[in-house]
Amino acid sequence: MSRQARQLSETGFYHVIFRGINHQHLFEEDADFQYLLQALKTLKKTMNFEIHAYCLMSNHVHLLMKEQEPGDISMIMKRILTKYAMYFNQKYQRSGALIASRYKSVPVKVDEYFITLIRYIHQNPLKANLVEKLEDYAFSSYWEYLHGSDWVNTELSLSMIGKNEWLELHRVLGDEAFEVSGQASLSDNQVRQKILQVTKGREPHEIVSWSKPERNAVIKQLKAAGVSIRQIERETGISRGIVARC
């Protein structure tokens, strides 16, 4: 039976996952993780693609990549997987396949899923109980997002919601609800000024005691003005569930 053709991404973005054959480890020591990362950096200099997130786990790898020309992803992955398999087999005196038969490449849209996908990738070590804090894991791009990077593209996702809200998103584990506003997040002072403007000088904490129609009308105005659900909850004391439904 012939293999199904890979689905091409309209945006050029793919979530790529590859695993060790028979669930075996892909990395035996830190030097192996570092070799694959360096191989990706080197390949980027000769092939035109972007890395927007990565996480290297012991027996599988997540990459959020963008190709520049349709179909480039196949050649990129062939080169990187072949190079790493040759390195690993030679180092550990083994032969045969290292990577499970076919890597996954899932097309990704640049929307709210884009941000939560990056969170999902970065939270793999946390969910596997390898670390207590994301910044303690050495082999994911979370560190690049915190401190900047010369090879991981961090600008796109940070520009979509702002760094503060991006960090807040990563503090929410798993599939818990979190608003991705699609706008740069406002500072606390800016939020307060928005509330004072909308309420004609009334204090934010007073809104919780207003009538439902009056309260909900203000919440809708604040959301339309770019104030996030979390910020409205924090400044007014109105629960997130109520704010989200307005």
Automatic annotation (TrEMBL):
Record-linked Gene3D superfamilies: Transposase IS200-like
GO MF assignments: DNA binding; transposase activity
GO BP terms in the entry: DNA transposition
Pfam family of the protein (one): Y1_Tnp
Domain of life of the native organism: Bacteria
Cross-referenced SMART domains: Y1_Tnp
Positions of the Transposase IS200-like domain: 9-124
PANTHER family for the chain: TRANSPOSASE IS200-LIKE DOMAIN-CONTAINING PROTEIN, TRANSPOSASE, Y1_TNP DOMAIN-CONTAINING
Name of the protein in question: Transposase IS200 like protein
